[in-house]
Amino acid sequence: MSLLFTPYDLAGLTLPNRIVMAPMTRSRAATGAPDAQTALYYAQRASAGLLITEGAPVSQEGTGYLYTPGIYTDTQEAAWAKVTQSVHDRGGRIFLQLWHVGRVSHTSLQPDGSAPVSASAQRAEGAFSFAIGPDGKPGQQPASMPRALLTTEIARITDDFVTAARRAMRAGFDGVEIHGANSYLFEQFLNANSNQRTDRYGGSIENRMRFLLETIDAVASAIGMNRVGVRISPFGRLSGIQGYDDEAETWLAVAKALEIRQPAYVHLSDQLTIGGEAMPQGFPAQFCKTFTGTLIAAGGFTQETGEQALKDGALDLIAYGKPFIANPDLVERMQNGWPIATAPREAFYGGTGASGYTDFPTWDKEKDNQND
Length: 372
Prior knowledge:
Oligomer: single chain
Shape: globular
Number of helices: 11
């Protein structure tokens, strides 16, 4: 029997299958809030065991890309409520990914054109932000030089996550995912190269973990640890993130701290398929021995490799990203052996209306079109 299509108890939330739609930035929120097309997009994919939304900035300061839907205003909260309603109407379950990009931003996106913030005043070399260029037009811009957060400011950002989580729950989400992966703010603190601080948030592994763990604890205190997921990308190399001496020890310490807390899940992002590097051989097994709670992974899985990972006991849930873009009925296609469509790369980011977003057909409609 295929494990992919068996139910799973996610901290009291019953999932009908073990297929997760991974968070994917689509940059289609022209006003900074979800719209009717956003609601339709997620509703179309509600047969996944769990939907995890694209990253939602917890503040303007946390924004690094134009047209990403935030969760820091009343308007955004009300708009997300329409998304969750549409998903729940189709029997789906949905978590909101909470996001602060830190230094992977541009002054044109920041309040009053100020510098982005990070653990240290260190530019993200080779990183780009989708922002407004010198010509006044949107496009890829080199990430701006950040300033180091003051020790007294860090609690403010934790509060932004707490407020965003409360907004998410009022908007009807089943939970939230704290985005600690892919070179963004929490990873900038965890990484010993990007974090050159000398206060209690820098130096030792314990200090570098402190910001992430304080935020997890604060969000859990507000909405319950069983409604908090955490995404991390051990050995990530995106947007200027580099390796460091105690890297493996740092990530295993994170695993140990998460084992104590037991969030709804931990979501590992293997960056090999998104331009980064794979985790070192043997490390995932070490992580699994340290963190024994629900583990999700994303990173180029096929149906066959996802099934094998479940059978091996390495993972509990398998996250798929790009396949969900062109296959709103991905679960049904997998379950029935129907063909899997491929989305053109130009459909990944940006655009308006339905084109390249909600106009991808289910297999039934695709088959009918072929027969016409």
